[in-house]
Amino acid sequence: MDTYVDRKKLFVPGLAKLYESLAPLSYTLIRFSLGVFLIPHGYAKLFQDDAVAASRNFVNFGWSNPLAWAYFIGALEFIGGIMLAVGLLTRIVAAAFVIEMSVISFGWVTAKSTESSPPRSRIASGMSLWPSIRGTVVRMRSAWAR
Q1: pLDDT score of 16
Q2: First to last CA, the chain
Q3: Where are the domains of the chain?
Q4: How confident is the model at residue 18 (pLDDT cuts 50, 70, 90)?
């Protein structure tokens, strides 16, 4: 991984050495943070009473079996969050989270609900997608260099 940090683009140029030392860990930190962030949301849906509240969103989407979808999303967030934090099957799990967050982002806008799309889901969707895109870009760059 490239650890070069352009000092002209830094917010705090005095921290350039810190940025350079942490640059190789940036994608791991993003992956771990997103996984740890989603684990309690899935836990609440699976083991507490949050699945019923989450199923109301699927009713607004017009989907059948909203409680089953809520438990599925709970399992995805709990088990997938653990897998993402640990680093198991990260691209597959990240793709599942991108789909989930996209449905949340755009489903809330198109549903018969008065609420608007939560900005956190758009941020989480981008965070899920970035490691997958980055890995593809790095492979493409190395293939072109040959």
Answers
A1: 84
A2: 17
A3: 31-145
A4: confident
| Residue 26 phi, psi (nearest 5) | -60, -45
Report the pLDDT value the prediction gives residue 25, as an integer from 0 to 100.
87
* Predicted pLDDT at 37: 93
Residues whose CB falls within 8 Å of the CB of residue 63, separated by 6 or more in sequence, listed in order: 69
Please state, in angstroms and rounded to a whole number, the distance separating the CA atoms of residues 124 and 118.
10
Q: From residue 6, how far is each of 19, 27, 135 by CA, in Å?
A: 10, 18, 21
Axis-axis angle for helices 50-61, 66-86 (nearest 10):
110
In angstroms, rounded to a whole number, what is the distance separating the alpha carbons of residues 58 and 138?
A: 37
- Is 84 in contact with 34 (CB distance < 8 Å)? yes
Cα separations in angstroms, 42 against 13, 96, 132:
39, 14, 22
Question: Of 89 and 142, which is predicted with more confidence?
Answer: 89
Tokens of 101: 């967050």
pTM here? 0.68
